[in-house]
Amino acid sequence: MLKTLKRISLGASTAIALATAAFAGPYDEFAGTTLVVNFPAHPHYNAVMKVLPEFTKETGIEVEVDQLPYMKMRERQTLELGQDEGDYDLVAYVVFSKADYVYADQLENLARYFMNPKLADPSYDPDDLIDGYVYNIGFAGGNKGYLAGKTGSLFGVPYGSETSVLGYRKDIFEKHNLAVPETYEEMLDIACKIPQLEPGMGGLSSRAASGHHAAHAFLLHLAPLGGRVFDNSWNPIVNNAAGVEAANALKTIVDCGPEGAASFGFGEALGSFLNGDTAMFLDTTVVAGQIDDPKKSKVVGKVGWAMHPMGVRRGSQTGGFGIGIPKNAENKDAAFLLMQWLTSKTGDKLTALAGGNPSRFSTHADADVNAKFPHMSIFGEALKHADPDWRPIIPVWGKINADLGTTLSKVLTEDLDIQTALDGVAERAKGIMDEAGYYTWQ
Amino acid sequence: MAPAIIIIILALLYPLGYMVYGSFRAWDPSQNISESEFVGLKNYITLFYDPAFRESLVVTLTFAVCVVFSELVIGVGLALMLDRNIRGMSVLRTLFILPMMIAPVVVGLMWRYMYHPTVGTFNKTLKSFGLDGIDWLGQNALLSVIIADVWQWTPFIFILSLAALQSLPRSAIEAAKIDGATSWQQIIHIKLPLMMPVLIVTALLRLIDAFKVLEVILVMTEGGPGLSTEILALRISRTATEFRELGVAAAMSNYLLIILLILTVSMYAITRIQENRAARLARQIQEEY
Q1: How far, rounded to the nearest angstrom, does the alpha carbon of residue B25 sit from its chain's CA centroid?
Q2: Do B226 and A268 count as a contact with CB atoms less than 8 A apart?
Q3: Which chain B positions have a beta carbon within 8 Å of A395's beta carbon?
Q4: What ipTM goes with this model?
Q5: Nearest chain A alpha carbon to B235
Q6: Which one of A112, A136, B145, B267 is CB 3.0 to 4.6 Å from A318, fit for a cystine?
Q7: Residue A230: what pLDDT?
Q8: For residue A54, how many other CB atoms are within 10 A of its CB?
Q9: How much is the pLDDT for A197?
Q10: Whose CA is closest to A50, among A34, A35, A67?
Q11: Across the interface, do B28 and A211 touch by the CB < 8 Å criterion?
């Protein structure tokens, strides 16, 4: 009797277990897991912090966030990713870290997660992710080693990515009957007219300070004006006609810009626009929230947005952050679920509504998002032209970027001849590339 | 006793040895140091011919000499002026040391915004008098960071100089007064020579610190414009983090260490000479009076 009862009981338990398994949610197996993630202190990730409780509520997976200033974050990741067992299950990485982390084999290839039917959500719709962002931030191993291509794979998903748009003062443009610039020629022309039309006001505020800032500002103009840093054989071509035109554009912008523009970093350039000292701002989309914040901005309601002006082609920048799973993570599957949830249509929309930068075309076109942030549709339009190759993402880029930035700073402050300056950059870049083995096959 | 000494030596020398070892390798932050390729003296030789490194050395020397000289002149001058019984001296002394207590990053941010071309205090003041603003962090960037450093660290020299002045033998100064020496003569012939050993040590400490300054300049100018304020510590930090060349950064650090060692040994030798001179002078005064 007892045996029979035991059999019945065992059978019932098995049936219940099987039935439960058949109807188990994708998150059940991971409920109670605590993920440790490393995010930067950045407006997008501040918005993410507001969304994470929703993920925990839906999945039962707890998330512990180590939020750090982004340069500090990179230092910490350099140490953490090199260990046998790491502390982080998911990391946000700044775009130029992609080359270093993938080359050092420190990030998981995401193919095996998207292939896993228990983990991959069929409604994820990867084609809705913004192409420029995915290829710039997530892909590696394709064309040139850092772009999409038949040999490439996905190592991260863009999250907290940015492109460039033109912000302009609607009131000033209306007052002087100026048309919103659509080309570089028109933009530079208006930039230098503004100081005459509005004494004391600069035309366009741009980063220009030595190093990363000047290099970033130059590259922002280089791609639309038809240039690239390297040709397809890795020969530096930054000193060709397009390069000179881009450096001239930067110099014109600084010369017609607000007082002291040559020493502006990102903060000063944005501050100048927020303070009403300049009529235009050409840089990242991440500033939109601050421009609309009356506590930070004197130009609330006065700013219109337009696409990054066209040179010989359209080409807005791509940058910001992506999220990836470290090779040494402890809870990789659960980390993938978090990554997938955050970058899903639902997660992306929730993050956007909380003030973050969306990574999907659908979020940019979403009615609720546009009702709250009317600029989002223009940003979505600009993203159709986002150029993943506006800046090389190779391990030696840091050194070339620093040289480019300090040399351009000399052009802006010491009147160093542009052609001579860029010839020097090209020559030194060639040496760096040679040493790193980029000409081995030539 | 012996184990304690071994531990102390290891604690002191191991990190130094690690840096020297790393400087002979093509060491990337994503690698374990032992996995990196041995390149011999290549990092040192490359740096020797690197114009950016040489420019950085010149900037560092200019910065260090200018700040230490200015701080010495102002700090010692203030100490000589205030070496008397003044009411509220303790309050004044506390106020003087406040800048030293502020975190360097905060100092950098504070000065960066005071130097701001349009909303900064300095240009606003100049413009209120109808004068043109100054391009503080552009063409005058090196001068601007020197001013910020002098503001922060002059109190250090002032406090030590004042302490040195107040510990001088009063008999020597009284004797000079009796002999009819003017205040200026007392300073030149009595006070400064007797203070010299303390001043040299103070200057040496400041010089070492000035060679290593990083945060204030990083926040104020990030080394620009061009490389005009890229001090050696900033170049080392960039080489290690932005360029990811830890071996080259270690070689740079060793060059800096060698420079500082030469300075320290020279200053130590000068201190010994000055101490002997000061002792002789003190004895001479005592014998005469």
Answers
A1: 31
A2: no
A3: 244
A4: 0.77
A5: A402
A6: A136
A7: 97
A8: 14
A9: 97
A10: A67
A11: no
Query: How high is the pLDDT of residue A2?
Result: 45
Average pLDDT, chain B: 88
- Name the residue in chain B with its Cα closest to that of A405: B226
Q: Per the CB < 8 Å rule, is A409 touching B116?
A: no
Interface of B to A at Cβ within 8 Å reads 28-32, 52, 116-119, 123, 133, 135-139, 141, 221-228, 230, 238, 241-245
| Shared-domain flag, residues A173 and A151 | no
Q: What is the CATH number of the domain that holds A301?
A: 3.40.190.10
Give the position of tokens 């003017």: B182
Give per-residue pLDDT as tens, A282-301.
999 888 888 888 998 999 99
Q: Please choose, from the candidates A119, A116, A89, the residue with its C-alpha nearest in 3D space to the C-alpha of residue A26.
A: A119
The domains found in chain B, sorted by start residue, are 52-288 (1.10.3720.10)
Same domain for A407 and A262, yes or no, is yes
Q: Domain count of chain A?
A: 2
Average pLDDT value for chain A: 92
- Whole-prediction pTM: 0.84
Owning domain of residue A201: 164-317+396-435
| d(CA B66, nearest CA chain A) in Å | 23
Type of residue numbered A427? E
Segment A390-399 shows an average pLDDT of 92
Q: How far apart are CA A298 and CA A286, in angstroms?
A: 18
> CB atoms < 10 A from the CB of A52, how many?
23
Q: Specify whether A74 is located in the same domain as A222.
A: no
CA distance linking residue A317 with residue A283, whole number of Å: 9
Q: Could you report the per-residue pLDDT of A143-154, keeping only the tens digit for each?
A: 999 998 999 999
Q: What residues contact A292, with CB distance under 8 A and at least 6 apart?
A: A300, A303, A373
The answer to whether residue A23 is domain-embedded is no
Q: How confident is the model over B21-34, as a mean pLDDT? A: 86
